Amino acid sequence: MADDPMLKFVGRPQAYPAKRPAQLRAEDFREIAERYAVPDAESQAGRCSQCGVPYCSVHCPLHNHIPDWLRLTAEGRLQEAYQLSNSTSTMPEICGRICPQDRLCEGNCVIEFSGHGAVTIGSVEKFITDTAWAEGWVEPVQVGRDRGQSVGIIGAGPAGLAAAEYLRGYGYEVHVYDRYDRSGGLLTYGIPGFKLEKDVVMRRVDRLEQAGIVFHRNFEVGRDATLGELRQRHDSILVATGVYKARAIKAPGVGAKGVVDALDYLTASNRKNFGDAVPAYDDGSLNALGKHVVVVGGGDTAMDCVRTAIRQGAASVKCLYRRDRANMPGSQREVANAEEEGVEFVWLSAPEAFDGTEQVTGVRASKMRLGAPDASGRRAPEVDPGGALQMPADLVIKALGFEPEDLPKLFGAEELGVTRWGTLRTDGKTMMTSMDGVFAAGDIVRGASLVVWAIRDGRDVAAHMHTWMKARAKAPISAKREASVA
Fold first, then answer.
1. Structural domain includes residue 78
2. Of the residues 347, 379, 401, which one is the last residue of a structural domain?
3. Which of 60, 80, 374, 378 lies deepest, with the highest CB count within 10 Å?
4. 353 in a domain, yes or no?
5. Are residues 219 and 347 in the same domain?
Protein backbone atom coordinates (compact mmCIF):
# COMPACT_ATOMS: atom_id res chain seq x y z
CA MET A 1 0.00 0.00 0.00
CA ALA A 2 1.34 3.39 -0.99
CA ASP A 3 2.41 5.72 1.76
CA ASP A 4 -0.42 8.09 2.75
CA PRO A 5 0.66 11.64 1.82
CA MET A 6 -1.22 13.17 4.76
CA LEU A 7 -0.59 13.58 8.52
CA LYS A 8 3.03 14.70 7.99
CA PHE A 9 2.83 17.55 10.53
CA VAL A 10 5.15 15.89 13.07
CA GLY A 11 8.15 15.44 10.81
CA ARG A 12 7.49 18.26 8.35
CA PRO A 13 7.74 21.85 9.62
CA GLN A 14 5.36 24.63 8.73
CA ALA A 15 6.69 26.70 5.81
CA TYR A 16 4.95 29.68 4.25
CA PRO A 17 6.05 30.96 0.83
CA ALA A 18 9.18 33.02 1.33
CA LYS A 19 8.64 36.77 1.67
CA ARG A 20 10.84 39.13 -0.28
CA PRO A 21 13.31 41.04 1.91
CA ALA A 22 11.59 43.94 3.67
CA GLN A 23 13.88 46.57 2.17
CA LEU A 24 13.16 45.37 -1.38
CA ARG A 25 9.40 44.88 -1.02
CA ALA A 26 9.04 48.34 0.54
CA GLU A 27 10.13 49.79 -2.81
CA ASP A 28 7.11 48.60 -4.80
CA PHE A 29 3.47 47.57 -4.58
CA ARG A 30 3.90 43.97 -5.68
CA GLU A 31 2.65 41.23 -3.40
CA ILE A 32 5.29 40.50 -0.78
CA ALA A 33 5.47 36.73 -1.36
CA GLU A 34 5.33 34.58 -4.46
CA ARG A 35 3.09 31.54 -4.57
CA TYR A 36 4.40 28.08 -3.73
CA ALA A 37 6.26 25.92 -6.20
CA VAL A 38 4.24 22.74 -6.83
CA PRO A 39 6.36 20.45 -4.58
CA ASP A 40 6.19 22.94 -1.71
CA ALA A 41 2.40 23.28 -1.96
CA GLU A 42 1.96 19.51 -2.04
CA SER A 43 4.34 19.12 0.91
CA GLN A 44 2.58 21.72 3.07
CA ALA A 45 -0.90 20.42 2.19
CA GLY A 46 0.30 16.98 3.33
CA ARG A 47 0.73 18.31 6.89
CA CYS A 48 -3.06 18.30 7.35
CA SER A 49 -4.26 15.90 10.05
CA GLN A 50 -7.58 15.22 8.23
CA CYS A 51 -9.66 15.87 11.35
CA GLY A 52 -12.97 14.14 11.78
CA VAL A 53 -14.42 17.50 12.86
CA PRO A 54 -12.43 20.05 10.82
CA TYR A 55 -12.38 23.22 12.88
CA CYS A 56 -10.79 25.03 9.93
CA SER A 57 -13.97 24.55 7.88
CA VAL A 58 -16.24 25.28 10.83
CA HIS A 59 -14.55 28.64 11.39
CA CYS A 60 -14.51 29.57 7.69
CA PRO A 61 -17.56 31.75 6.91
CA LEU A 62 -17.89 29.96 3.57
CA HIS A 63 -17.40 26.52 5.18
CA ASN A 64 -14.87 25.65 2.49
CA HIS A 65 -14.02 21.95 2.15
CA ILE A 66 -10.50 22.63 3.37
CA PRO A 67 -9.27 19.15 4.43
CA ASP A 68 -10.57 17.67 1.18
CA TRP A 69 -8.82 20.08 -1.14
CA LEU A 70 -5.67 19.87 0.97
CA ARG A 71 -5.66 16.09 0.44
CA LEU A 72 -6.22 16.49 -3.32
CA THR A 73 -3.33 18.98 -3.44
CA ALA A 74 -1.03 16.65 -1.51
CA GLU A 75 -1.91 13.87 -3.96
CA GLY A 76 -1.06 16.08 -6.95
CA ARG A 77 -4.70 16.28 -8.10
CA LEU A 78 -4.65 20.04 -8.48
CA GLN A 79 -7.45 20.43 -10.99
CA GLU A 80 -9.80 18.50 -8.71
CA ALA A 81 -8.58 20.57 -5.76
CA TYR A 82 -9.45 23.72 -7.67
CA GLN A 83 -12.91 22.46 -8.60
CA LEU A 84 -13.67 21.64 -4.98
CA SER A 85 -12.31 24.97 -3.72
CA ASN A 86 -14.30 26.82 -6.37
CA SER A 87 -17.53 25.02 -5.43
CA THR A 88 -17.99 27.04 -2.24
CA SER A 89 -16.26 30.32 -3.08
CA THR A 90 -16.45 32.68 -6.04
CA MET A 91 -13.05 34.21 -5.19
CA PRO A 92 -10.81 31.62 -3.51
CA GLU A 93 -7.53 33.15 -4.67
CA ILE A 94 -8.64 36.53 -3.28
CA CYS A 95 -9.62 35.05 0.08
CA GLY A 96 -6.30 33.17 0.11
CA ARG A 97 -4.54 36.52 -0.11
CA ILE A 98 -6.52 38.79 2.19
CA CYS A 99 -8.46 36.68 4.71
CA PRO A 100 -7.10 36.91 8.26
CA GLN A 101 -6.38 33.18 8.35
CA ASP A 102 -4.69 33.59 11.72
CA ARG A 103 -8.13 34.46 13.16
CA LEU A 104 -10.18 32.01 11.07
CA CYS A 105 -9.12 28.69 9.50
CA GLU A 106 -5.44 28.57 10.47
CA GLY A 107 -6.10 30.02 13.91
CA ASN A 108 -8.42 27.07 14.57
CA CYS A 109 -6.26 24.35 13.00
CA VAL A 110 -5.99 21.36 15.33
CA ILE A 111 -2.27 20.91 14.75
CA GLU A 112 -1.79 24.59 15.67
CA PHE A 113 -3.28 23.69 19.06
CA SER A 114 -0.83 20.78 19.34
CA GLY A 115 2.13 23.12 18.92
CA HIS A 116 3.20 21.97 15.45
CA GLY A 117 2.14 25.11 13.56
CA ALA A 118 -1.05 25.40 11.51
CA VAL A 119 -1.35 24.11 7.98
CA THR A 120 -0.70 27.07 5.64
CA ILE A 121 -4.27 26.98 4.36
CA GLY A 122 -4.43 30.47 2.85
CA SER A 123 -1.21 30.07 0.88
CA VAL A 124 -2.35 26.70 -0.49
CA GLU A 125 -5.75 28.17 -1.39
CA LYS A 126 -4.04 30.98 -3.31
CA PHE A 127 -1.73 28.48 -5.03
CA ILE A 128 -4.58 26.21 -6.17
CA THR A 129 -6.59 28.88 -7.98
CA ASP A 130 -3.60 30.82 -9.32
CA THR A 131 -2.50 27.51 -10.86
CA ALA A 132 -6.02 27.03 -12.26
CA TRP A 133 -5.89 30.42 -13.98
CA ALA A 134 -2.42 29.68 -15.37
CA GLU A 135 -3.45 26.25 -16.66
CA GLY A 136 -6.75 27.38 -18.17
CA TRP A 137 -8.91 25.37 -15.76
CA VAL A 138 -11.06 28.35 -14.78
CA GLU A 139 -14.22 27.91 -16.82
CA PRO A 140 -16.72 30.59 -17.85
CA VAL A 141 -19.66 31.23 -15.54
CA GLN A 142 -22.28 28.59 -16.23
CA VAL A 143 -25.28 30.73 -17.19
CA GLY A 144 -28.65 29.20 -16.41
CA ARG A 145 -31.69 29.00 -18.67
CA ASP A 146 -33.10 32.48 -19.28
CA ARG A 147 -35.89 33.14 -16.80
CA GLY A 148 -37.10 36.37 -18.35
CA GLN A 149 -36.47 38.29 -15.13
CA SER A 150 -33.80 40.83 -14.24
CA VAL A 151 -31.94 41.83 -11.11
CA GLY A 152 -30.31 45.14 -10.26
CA ILE A 153 -27.34 45.06 -7.88
CA ILE A 154 -26.13 48.29 -6.27
CA GLY A 155 -22.45 47.92 -5.45
CA ALA A 156 -19.69 46.05 -7.26
CA GLY A 157 -17.77 44.96 -4.17
CA PRO A 158 -17.33 41.36 -3.04
CA ALA A 159 -20.96 40.87 -1.89
CA GLY A 160 -22.37 42.31 -5.09
CA LEU A 161 -19.99 40.41 -7.36
CA ALA A 162 -20.60 37.10 -5.58
CA ALA A 163 -24.38 37.55 -5.80
CA ALA A 164 -24.12 38.55 -9.46
CA GLU A 165 -22.30 35.32 -10.33
CA TYR A 166 -24.81 33.10 -8.55
CA LEU A 167 -27.83 34.96 -9.93
CA ARG A 168 -26.46 34.73 -13.46
CA GLY A 169 -26.02 31.02 -12.85
CA TYR A 170 -29.72 30.85 -11.91
CA GLY A 171 -30.58 32.36 -15.30
CA TYR A 172 -31.38 35.98 -14.44
CA GLU A 173 -30.37 39.06 -16.40
CA VAL A 174 -28.03 40.88 -14.02
CA HIS A 175 -27.15 44.59 -13.97
CA VAL A 176 -24.56 45.93 -11.51
CA TYR A 177 -24.56 49.64 -10.65
CA ASP A 178 -21.48 51.17 -9.02
CA ARG A 179 -20.26 54.67 -8.25
CA TYR A 180 -16.67 53.95 -9.28
CA ASP A 181 -15.12 53.73 -12.73
CA ARG A 182 -13.78 50.23 -12.01
CA SER A 183 -15.59 47.34 -10.39
CA GLY A 184 -14.41 45.57 -7.25
CA GLY A 185 -15.17 48.13 -4.54
CA LEU A 186 -12.64 47.96 -1.73
CA LEU A 187 -10.91 45.04 -3.48
CA THR A 188 -9.93 47.50 -6.21
CA TYR A 189 -9.51 50.83 -4.46
CA GLY A 190 -9.26 50.10 -0.73
CA ILE A 191 -6.75 47.24 -0.50
CA PRO A 192 -3.18 47.97 -1.65
CA GLY A 193 -1.48 45.95 -4.35
CA PHE A 194 1.10 44.49 -1.95
CA LYS A 195 -1.77 42.48 -0.44
CA LEU A 196 -3.88 42.02 -3.56
CA GLU A 197 -2.52 42.79 -7.00
CA LYS A 198 -5.21 44.36 -9.13
CA ASP A 199 -5.05 42.03 -12.12
CA VAL A 200 -6.29 39.31 -9.73
CA VAL A 201 -9.48 41.34 -9.19
CA MET A 202 -9.87 42.52 -12.79
CA ARG A 203 -9.77 38.99 -14.23
CA ARG A 204 -12.68 38.05 -11.95
CA VAL A 205 -14.65 41.09 -13.16
CA ASP A 206 -13.81 40.28 -16.79
CA ARG A 207 -15.14 36.74 -16.30
CA LEU A 208 -18.45 38.12 -15.03
CA GLU A 209 -18.73 40.52 -17.98
CA GLN A 210 -18.08 37.65 -20.38
CA ALA A 211 -21.05 35.88 -18.77
CA GLY A 212 -23.32 38.71 -19.85
CA ILE A 213 -23.48 40.59 -16.55
CA VAL A 214 -23.92 44.29 -17.39
CA PHE A 215 -21.86 46.77 -15.38
CA HIS A 216 -23.04 50.39 -15.10
CA ARG A 217 -19.98 52.24 -13.81
CA ASN A 218 -19.81 55.84 -12.59
CA PHE A 219 -23.46 55.35 -11.65
CA GLU A 220 -24.67 56.90 -8.41
CA VAL A 221 -28.02 55.87 -7.04
CA GLY A 222 -29.76 59.08 -6.01
CA ARG A 223 -28.03 61.06 -8.75
CA ASP A 224 -28.55 58.95 -11.87
CA ALA A 225 -31.66 57.14 -10.64
CA THR A 226 -33.49 56.77 -7.35
CA LEU A 227 -33.84 53.41 -5.69
CA GLY A 228 -37.54 53.46 -6.60
CA GLU A 229 -36.71 54.03 -10.26
CA LEU A 230 -34.27 51.10 -10.27
CA ARG A 231 -36.94 48.97 -8.59
CA GLN A 232 -39.24 49.72 -11.53
CA ARG A 233 -36.57 48.57 -13.99
CA HIS A 234 -35.91 45.20 -12.36
CA ASP A 235 -37.80 42.32 -10.80
CA SER A 236 -35.69 42.62 -7.65
CA ILE A 237 -32.89 44.77 -6.27
CA LEU A 238 -29.86 43.95 -4.11
CA VAL A 239 -28.21 46.70 -2.08
CA ALA A 240 -24.57 45.72 -1.51
CA THR A 241 -22.88 49.08 -1.16
CA GLY A 242 -20.63 48.30 1.76
CA VAL A 243 -19.87 51.02 4.33
CA TYR A 244 -17.74 53.95 3.23
CA LYS A 245 -18.31 56.80 5.68
CA ALA A 246 -15.16 57.34 7.76
CA ARG A 247 -15.51 57.38 11.54
CA ALA A 248 -14.63 60.80 12.86
CA ILE A 249 -12.04 61.89 15.42
CA LYS A 250 -13.20 64.55 17.85
CA ALA A 251 -10.11 66.56 18.70
CA PRO A 252 -8.93 70.15 18.25
CA GLY A 253 -7.24 70.75 14.90
CA VAL A 254 -8.78 67.73 13.17
CA GLY A 255 -9.89 69.93 10.28
CA ALA A 256 -6.36 71.10 9.45
CA LYS A 257 -4.92 70.44 6.03
CA GLY A 258 -2.95 67.21 6.06
CA VAL A 259 -5.42 65.32 8.28
CA VAL A 260 -7.05 62.92 5.80
CA ASP A 261 -9.36 59.92 5.69
CA ALA A 262 -7.86 56.48 5.11
CA LEU A 263 -10.04 55.59 2.13
CA ASP A 264 -9.19 58.84 0.30
CA TYR A 265 -5.52 58.12 0.87
CA LEU A 266 -5.67 54.47 -0.22
CA THR A 267 -7.85 55.21 -3.24
CA ALA A 268 -5.40 57.86 -4.46
CA SER A 269 -2.51 55.41 -4.12
CA ASN A 270 -4.35 52.62 -5.93
CA ARG A 271 -5.45 54.96 -8.71
CA LYS A 272 -1.86 56.12 -9.15
CA ASN A 273 -0.75 52.50 -9.47
CA PHE A 274 -3.41 51.98 -12.15
CA GLY A 275 -1.79 54.86 -14.05
CA ASP A 276 -4.64 57.32 -13.49
CA ALA A 277 -4.18 61.07 -13.20
CA VAL A 278 -4.48 61.82 -9.47
CA PRO A 279 -4.05 65.56 -8.79
CA ALA A 280 -4.31 65.17 -4.99
CA TYR A 281 -1.44 62.67 -5.11
CA ASP A 282 0.71 64.77 -7.43
CA ASP A 283 0.29 67.94 -5.34
CA GLY A 284 1.31 66.04 -2.19
CA SER A 285 -2.05 66.17 -0.40
CA LEU A 286 -2.46 62.38 -0.49
CA ASN A 287 1.18 61.41 -0.90
CA ALA A 288 3.52 60.49 1.97
CA LEU A 289 6.78 61.16 0.13
CA GLY A 290 9.30 62.75 2.52
CA LYS A 291 6.71 63.28 5.24
CA HIS A 292 6.39 62.32 8.87
CA VAL A 293 3.24 60.22 8.82
CA VAL A 294 1.02 59.33 11.76
CA VAL A 295 -1.77 56.80 11.24
CA VAL A 296 -4.50 56.60 13.89
CA GLY A 297 -6.15 53.18 14.26
CA GLY A 298 -5.35 49.52 14.81
CA GLY A 299 -7.35 47.61 12.20
CA ASP A 300 -6.38 46.19 8.83
CA THR A 301 -7.11 49.54 7.13
CA ALA A 302 -4.56 51.20 9.39
CA MET A 303 -2.04 48.49 8.47
CA ASP A 304 -2.73 49.16 4.78
CA CYS A 305 -2.08 52.87 5.33
CA VAL A 306 1.19 52.54 7.24
CA ARG A 307 2.60 50.06 4.74
CA THR A 308 1.50 52.25 1.81
CA ALA A 309 3.24 55.27 3.38
CA ILE A 310 6.47 53.30 3.66
CA ARG A 311 6.29 52.50 -0.07
CA GLN A 312 5.63 56.12 -0.95
CA GLY A 313 8.90 57.13 0.70
CA ALA A 314 7.75 58.62 4.00
CA ALA A 315 10.45 60.05 6.27
CA SER A 316 8.88 58.21 9.22
CA VAL A 317 5.69 56.26 9.87
CA LYS A 318 4.05 55.85 13.27
CA CYS A 319 0.84 54.02 14.12
CA LEU A 320 -1.12 55.18 17.16
CA TYR A 321 -3.49 52.69 18.72
CA ARG A 322 -5.39 53.14 21.97
CA ARG A 323 -5.12 49.50 23.09
CA ASP A 324 -2.09 47.20 23.26
CA ARG A 325 -0.82 44.77 20.65
CA ALA A 326 -2.72 41.80 22.08
CA ASN A 327 -6.03 43.66 21.85
CA MET A 328 -5.77 45.19 18.40
CA PRO A 329 -8.37 44.15 15.78
CA GLY A 330 -5.96 43.95 12.86
CA SER A 331 -4.07 40.87 11.73
CA GLN A 332 -0.94 40.12 13.74
CA ARG A 333 0.74 39.06 10.50
CA GLU A 334 0.12 42.50 9.08
CA VAL A 335 1.63 44.11 12.18
CA ALA A 336 4.72 41.92 11.78
CA ASN A 337 5.01 42.81 8.09
CA ALA A 338 4.69 46.51 8.92
CA GLU A 339 7.36 46.33 11.62
CA GLU A 340 9.73 44.55 9.25
CA GLU A 341 9.22 47.37 6.75
CA GLY A 342 10.01 50.11 9.27
CA VAL A 343 6.73 51.16 10.87
CA GLU A 344 6.85 52.21 14.53
CA PHE A 345 3.84 51.26 16.66
CA VAL A 346 2.92 53.52 19.57
CA TRP A 347 0.67 51.30 21.65
CA LEU A 348 -1.76 52.57 24.30
CA SER A 349 -1.96 56.05 22.85
CA ALA A 350 -4.77 58.19 21.46
CA PRO A 351 -4.74 61.60 19.74
CA GLU A 352 -5.68 64.52 21.95
CA ALA A 353 -5.11 67.38 19.49
CA PHE A 354 -3.52 68.17 16.15
CA ASP A 355 -1.04 71.04 16.01
CA GLY A 356 -0.89 73.53 13.17
CA THR A 357 -3.31 76.13 11.93
CA GLU A 358 -3.46 75.77 8.16
CA GLN A 359 -1.25 72.67 7.83
CA VAL A 360 -0.88 69.95 10.43
CA THR A 361 2.56 69.98 12.05
CA GLY A 362 2.23 67.51 14.88
CA VAL A 363 0.08 65.24 17.00
CA ARG A 364 -0.41 65.51 20.74
CA ALA A 365 -1.50 62.21 22.24
CA SER A 366 -2.53 60.85 25.61
CA LYS A 367 -1.10 57.68 27.02
CA MET A 368 -3.82 55.13 27.66
CA ARG A 369 -4.27 52.16 29.95
CA LEU A 370 -6.72 49.27 29.83
CA GLY A 371 -9.49 49.40 32.41
CA ALA A 372 -12.49 47.20 33.09
CA PRO A 373 -14.07 45.21 30.24
CA ASP A 374 -16.68 47.07 28.19
CA ALA A 375 -19.98 45.71 26.82
CA SER A 376 -18.10 43.66 24.20
CA GLY A 377 -15.94 42.00 26.85
CA ARG A 378 -12.78 43.84 25.80
CA ARG A 379 -10.94 45.93 28.36
CA ALA A 380 -11.89 49.52 27.72
CA PRO A 381 -9.08 52.03 27.16
CA GLU A 382 -8.95 55.00 29.51
CA VAL A 383 -6.61 57.96 29.77
CA ASP A 384 -3.51 57.43 31.87
CA PRO A 385 -3.15 60.72 33.79
CA GLY A 386 0.59 60.36 34.05
CA GLY A 387 1.43 60.22 30.36
CA ALA A 388 1.47 62.51 27.32
CA LEU A 389 3.16 62.30 23.92
CA GLN A 390 3.99 64.74 21.19
CA MET A 391 5.27 63.85 17.73
CA PRO A 392 5.85 65.70 14.47
CA ALA A 393 3.45 64.98 11.61
CA ASP A 394 3.07 66.38 8.09
CA LEU A 395 0.37 63.86 7.23
CA VAL A 396 -2.16 62.30 9.62
CA ILE A 397 -4.32 59.46 8.33
CA LYS A 398 -7.55 58.65 10.17
CA ALA A 399 -8.11 54.89 10.00
CA LEU A 400 -10.74 54.32 12.67
CA GLY A 401 -13.06 52.23 10.53
CA PHE A 402 -16.18 52.89 8.50
CA GLU A 403 -19.86 53.54 9.10
CA PRO A 404 -22.88 53.38 6.79
CA GLU A 405 -23.90 56.34 4.69
CA ASP A 406 -27.48 57.60 5.06
CA LEU A 407 -28.84 55.42 2.28
CA PRO A 408 -32.55 56.31 2.66
CA LYS A 409 -31.66 59.96 2.04
CA LEU A 410 -28.93 59.22 -0.49
CA PHE A 411 -31.13 56.87 -2.54
CA GLY A 412 -34.28 58.96 -2.30
CA ALA A 413 -36.01 56.13 -0.46
CA GLU A 414 -37.15 57.28 2.96
CA GLU A 415 -39.14 54.05 3.39
CA LEU A 416 -35.90 52.04 3.47
CA GLY A 417 -35.56 50.87 7.08
CA VAL A 418 -32.30 51.18 9.01
CA THR A 419 -31.04 50.04 12.40
CA ARG A 420 -29.84 52.36 15.15
CA TRP A 421 -26.33 51.93 13.70
CA GLY A 422 -27.44 53.10 10.27
CA THR A 423 -27.08 49.69 8.62
CA LEU A 424 -29.98 48.40 6.54
CA ARG A 425 -32.60 46.47 8.45
CA THR A 426 -33.35 43.11 6.85
CA ASP A 427 -35.50 40.10 7.58
CA GLY A 428 -33.28 37.47 9.18
CA LYS A 429 -34.79 34.66 7.12
CA THR A 430 -35.14 36.26 3.68
CA MET A 431 -32.51 39.07 3.74
CA MET A 432 -35.17 41.43 2.34
CA THR A 433 -35.31 45.05 3.47
CA SER A 434 -38.46 46.96 4.41
CA MET A 435 -39.06 47.57 0.68
CA ASP A 436 -40.74 44.74 -1.19
CA GLY A 437 -38.33 43.04 -3.57
CA VAL A 438 -35.31 44.99 -2.30
CA PHE A 439 -32.71 42.81 -0.57
CA ALA A 440 -29.43 43.74 1.13
CA ALA A 441 -26.18 41.93 1.93
CA GLY A 442 -22.62 42.46 3.07
CA ASP A 443 -21.25 45.26 5.21
CA ILE A 444 -24.28 47.50 4.66
CA VAL A 445 -26.18 44.96 6.78
CA ARG A 446 -23.59 43.56 9.20
CA GLY A 447 -21.36 46.65 9.50
CA ALA A 448 -17.69 46.82 8.54
CA SER A 449 -16.50 43.22 8.34
CA LEU A 450 -14.38 40.81 6.32
CA VAL A 451 -14.39 40.19 2.57
CA VAL A 452 -15.07 36.50 3.16
CA TRP A 453 -18.26 37.36 5.05
CA ALA A 454 -19.36 39.61 2.17
CA ILE A 455 -18.87 36.72 -0.25
CA ARG A 456 -20.86 34.43 2.04
CA ASP A 457 -23.66 37.01 2.24
CA GLY A 458 -23.65 37.38 -1.55
CA ARG A 459 -24.04 33.63 -1.93
CA ASP A 460 -26.85 33.48 0.62
CA VAL A 461 -28.82 36.45 -0.65
CA ALA A 462 -28.70 35.16 -4.23
CA ALA A 463 -30.46 31.99 -3.08
CA HIS A 464 -33.12 34.01 -1.22
CA MET A 465 -33.69 36.29 -4.22
CA HIS A 466 -33.98 33.26 -6.48
CA THR A 467 -36.65 31.74 -4.23
CA TRP A 468 -38.57 35.03 -4.09
CA MET A 469 -38.46 35.65 -7.85
CA LYS A 470 -39.45 32.08 -8.68
CA ALA A 471 -42.58 32.52 -6.58
CA ARG A 472 -43.39 35.81 -8.34
CA ALA A 473 -42.81 34.27 -11.76
CA LYS A 474 -45.41 31.56 -11.10
CA ALA A 475 -48.28 34.00 -10.68
CA PRO A 476 -48.40 35.40 -14.24
CA ILE A 477 -47.88 31.92 -15.71
CA SER A 478 -50.86 30.58 -13.73
CA ALA A 479 -52.93 33.58 -14.79
CA LYS A 480 -52.09 32.95 -18.44
CA ARG A 481 -53.13 29.31 -18.14
CA GLU A 482 -56.44 30.27 -16.52
CA ALA A 483 -57.04 32.81 -19.26
CA SER A 484 -56.34 30.24 -22.00
CA VAL A 485 -58.77 27.74 -20.40
CA ALA A 486 -61.47 30.37 -20.15
1. yes
2. 401
3. 60
4. yes
5. no
Question: Can you give the pLDDT at residue 221?
Answer: 97
Q: What are phi and psi of 280, to 5 degrees?
A: -70, -25
> Three-state SS for 363?
strand
Whether 210 contacts 231, CB under 8 Å: no
H or E stretch covering 151: strand 150-154
Sequence-distant (≥ 6) Cβ neighbours of residue 479 within 8 angstroms: none
Alpha helices in 118-197 (DSSP H): 121-135, 158-170, 186-189
Whether the CB-CB separation of 241 and 227 falls below 8 Å is answered with no
Query: To which H or E segment does residue 316 belong?
Result: strand 316-320
- In this structure, is residue 484 part of a structural domain? no
Q: Are residues 381 and 293 both part of a single domain?
A: yes
Cβ atoms within 10 Å of 113's Cβ, excluding its own:
11
C-alpha span between 75 and 244 (Å, rounded) = 44
Give 376's contacts (C-beta < 8 A, 6+ positions apart).
none
Residues 397, 261 share a domain: yes
Asked if pLDDT for residue 140 goes beyond 70, the answer is yes
Secondary structure letter of residue 107 according to DSSP: G
Domain carrying residue 107? 22-135
Q: Is residue 235 part of a domain?
A: yes
pTM (two decimals)? 0.93
Q: Report d(CA 243, CA 246) in Å as an integer.
A: 9
Q: Rounded to whole angstroms, what are the CA distances from 69 to 72, 164, 404?
A: 5, 25, 37
pLDDT for res 330: 84
| pLDDT tens string 358-401 | 899 999 999 999 998 888 788 889 999 878 899 999 999 999 99
Domain count of the fold of the chain:
3
396 shares a domain with 273 = yes
